[in-house]
Design brief:
alpha/beta; Sufe protein. Chain: A; 44% helix; globular
Amino acid sequence: MVCWASCLSPTYVVHFYPDRAKTANNKFDAAMTIDQLYDKVIMDHINNARNYRAMPDADRKAEAVSTLCGDSVTVYVKLDGDRIRDVAFQCASCAISMASASIMTEAIKGKRQAEAAALMHAVTDRIMQKAADPDASFSADQSAIFEALRAFPTRKTCATVAWHALAAALEGGRSTVAVEQ
């Protein structure tokens, strides 16, 4: 498992996000900023990523790569008719990408392909702040990602990479897609 969490070291956060790292006394507190980004839910998905494994017998497999940061997520899907029987992922990415992939695999396992595709559109629309389906409902874990991205909008693409890999895997035609947002 590769995770580039070091890219959000306190020094990095203070250097690139100085307005987000200030305390009430106008002093820098990078640990506060890290806590904003990595709440308990997200940290749980980073430290205990669900479904992180290769799946040699997958019916579908696709990789998505962010052209902005280089995050790479491969999604494996095992189908039972139209239903997603099993799903897994592997990544070389930042922690937000990994947490989003972990959350995604839990959310789509057991769903029909059309349901998973609809959820993918709802989640990516919400992350990218596009007009989302008003009837869409999200899990507490998905909401944790949305909340973290409110403070760090530059990380939106990171959170969508796995979902783009899922879309490509469900389409079955493309094995690698570029994510440009």
